[in-house]
Amino acid sequence: MKKNKKTHVMSGVLIVLFVGIFMIISGRFLYIQATGEIAGVSLENWSEEKRTASYTLDAERGKVYDRNGMTLAYDRPTYRIQAIVGESHTQNEEEPLHVVNEEETAEKLAPLLDADESYLLDQMEEGVQEDRFQVEFGSAGKELSQNTKEKIEELELPGIKFTEEPIRYYPNGMFASQIIGFAQKEENTITGVTGIENEMNQLLSGKAGSISYERDQYNAKLLNPNEVIKEPEDGGDVYLTIDQKIQTLLEDVMTQMDEAYNPERMTATVMDPKTGEILAMSNRPSYNPNNPSDVENWYNDAIATPFEPGSTMKIFTWSAAIEQGVYNGDEWFESGSYKISDRVVPVRDHNGGEGWGSITYDEGFARSSNVAAAKLLWEKIGTEEYLEYWDAFGFDEKTGIDLPGEQAGQLVYNYPRDKISTAFGQASTVTPIQQMKAASAIANDGKMVKPYVISKTVDPSSGKVIDEKSPEAAGEPISKETSEQMKDLLGSVVSSEDGTGAEYKLDDYSVAGKTGTAQIYENGKLLTGHGNNMYSFLGMAPKEDPELMMYVSVKQPDIKVTETGSEPVSFIFKNVMQNGLHYLDIEPDKEASGQIDTVQLPEMTGRETSKVQNELKKKGVNVSVIGSGDTIKKASAAEGDELLQGDRILLITDQPEMPDITGWSLRDVMQLADLTALEVEAIGNGYVVSQSIEKGKPLKKNDNLEVEFEQPALDAGGEAESNGSSE
Predict the structure, then answer these.
(1) DSSP string spanning 432-496?
(2) CATH top-level class for 245-456+472-583?
(3) Which intervals carry biased composition (Basic and acidic residues) (predicted)?
(4) H or E segment at 97?
(5) C-alpha angle with apex 39: 33 to 40, nearest 5 degrees?
(6) Angle 362-365-370 (CA atoms, 0-180°, nearest 5)?
(7) β-sheet bridge partners, residue 186
(8) Which one of 191, 341, 476, 478 counts the least CB within 10 Å of its CB?
């Protein structure tokens, strides 16, 4: 057959085309083989990257401690529950690794997860229908405690697994919450939101690490995985100046007064006036940082809420007059009302402008005369000179306390009435912490100190101190002589029969302080009516050499017609100061009104349990023996310590067992936790009503103890005295 010429041509073209394509492809393969690159990308690096698994190694967030090493905030392990519903996970039917019976599983999990049984069942059945490997149970299956996890594991339900994940935990609940603040998870990282958690977030967070290795297609490590590990750097620890015992005492009495009087606001701060260390600080409303939802008040009012302070500002007006050399305490003036001109609204004393007739300026201070304060500023000190003292006492600026959100007050000083009103605590505003900083000059021989709450920061891995704070001078607005005279004047407010502060007397310590009653404006209108004021007290003790200084304010308490606003304020002040001074071992400077029986503790550790118990009971001590062992291994107090009769002491035997802690205070529970290395989860406030570890169960280190507290009803009038005088 004769071949077609056209066919020959087309065949030749196709051959050339295929040969060309083959050469190009072969050349490309040879090029790739020789260079190991495609489009500038190294195939070796690309393949290594594809088979390399990388994971983040989270750093542990640093802890927050009180001044004595009591843990206030730490990362606590919690657990997320998963139900494996994929049957393929089970290799041996006799030992199933997936949920076999959804109905039974839902029924048994529901009470432990506090979830609806039908919801759990729906989640598992939906997972089976959609051929999913595992399912979770939303918020009900997250942040489970160790105790809950163990109870679920005891059920031995097939297919139920747990994943550990840390959360930020605050073992004391509402304790100092507006100082400590809180942290929460944001994109798998715990981040500080408020308080110290926010202020020191960078230090507390540390630096995350990582791990990477090469794997095969089944996700198993290669024999030579080229593993690279970058260890995480855990966050630094923060030690506060807060004292857990004084703070707990403050929280307890604040809660009692909150429930008894239902005030709009309360704030209280305890400070060492010689150093500026804040030993306790609390506000109401407050919140539990473990559950920061529906928070009524985010602000730390002690540092962030300026207000007209009322008569506590007279402390600094009298100080200015004395320092200026224009004060004569024996000089007489006419009390009641004071008018500087026909165009200026007169100043009236707090008893409706009646006054007390002709009195001395010293008596005017004890009685808290507005007229005396106005005359001192207008006639003695001078308005411009008074401004210099306002600045010298630091009222023109923030204190610089190491907490976020501090605000400075505002000086209102444009018109004559504003100026004389500022002298007795109206018109201009300040914060409680500004007043405490200024008052430290009176307690500290004329020298002001800067308040602070962070004592030191520590590297947890080495134990070395990263940074440590020391007292910082903040000026010297008055002389030592002026401070001594002011302490005497402040003492007269509490001790003299004319003083407005008789309710603030302590049994065995002299007190120097000043009461305050401030007006409240809403929508530009002055509130009237019984109780519609801000009641406050700024006091220090012992008077001659103050070791503690405290400011308390209560806004709009629900008081009876027969009560004064000072009753909730004095209840807080007296309880915290009296017990705080005793706790700090401060020598009383006056005879107690009633004899306080104390017990000096004998040697206890290493001795026979029954003998120590009987000896202490005979002395009147409330003894709680922890365990059934024959020998005392630890005690909550040491040989030679002094306790009041009726105080509780914990004795830990060589076989510690869980006691019945019903009725115990948070302080007692935390002592038990310290001595036995328990992890405590506290719910509520007040006294123990339930415990997760049964009485008699042997205690092991790091056991998790969940404790529920409730506040008992309180007769607030029990300890509050009344003198019938108000300001």
Answers:
(1) HHHHHHHHHHHHTTT--B--B-EEEEE-TTT--EEEE----B----S-HHHHHHHHHHHHHHHHS
(2) alpha beta
(3) 695-704
(4) none
(5) 85
(6) 130
(7) 189
(8) 341
Helices and strands (H, E) in the chain, number of each type: 20, 33
Q: Which residues pair with 691 in a beta bridge?
A: 707
Question: Please, which residues have CB within 8 angstroms of residue 589's CB and are 6 or more apart in sequence?
Answer: 508, 509, 510, 542, 543, 544
Decide if 570 is catalytic. Answer: no
Provide the residue type at 89 as one letter.
H
- Identify the DSSP state of 551: E
Mean per-residue pLDDT, 345-356: 91
Coil, strand, or helix at residue 648? strand
Read off φ and ψ for residue 632, nearest 5 degrees. Answer: -80, 125
Per-residue pLDDT of 101-154, as tens digits, reads 889 888 989 998 888 989 998 988 888 888 888 888 888 888 888 889 889 989
**Alpha helix locations (H) across 262-382?**
301-304, 314-324, 361-367, 370-375
State the residue for tokens 């004559």: 416
- Please state the three-class secondary structure of 381-400 as a single string: HCHHHHHHHHHHCCCCCCCC
Catalytic residue among 145, 177, 311, 440: 311
Q: What is the dihedral of CA 271, 275, 276, 281, to 10 degrees?
A: -30
User: Mean pLDDT across the stretch 82-105?
Assistant: 82
Is 403 within 8 Å of 453 (Cβ atoms)?
yes
CA distance 586 to 280: 17
Angle at alpha carbon of residue 719, lines to 715 and 724, rounded to 5°: 105
Q: How far apart are CA 67 and CA 239, in angstroms?
A: 6
The secondary element (H helix, E strand) that includes residue 37 is strand 37-38
Tokens 């630890």 — which residue? Answer: 634
Residue-wise pLDDT for 264-300, tens only, equals: 999 999 999 999 999 999 999 998 898 887 777 788 9
Q: Would the pTM count as exceeding 0.90?
A: no
Predicted pLDDT at 723: 32
Q: Measured between alpha carbons, how far is 453 from 295 in angstroms, rounded to an integer?
A: 23
> Residue 524: is its pLDDT beyond 90?
no
The answer to whether residue 722 scores a pLDDT higher than 50 is no
Please compute Rg for the chain using Cα positions: 35
Which of 3.10.450.50, 3.90.1310.10, 1.10.10.10, 3.90.470.10 would CATH assign to domain 56-240?
Answer: 3.90.1310.10
Residue 129, CA distances (Å) to 109, 123, 396, 701 in order? 21, 10, 69, 44
Class of domain 598-710: alpha beta
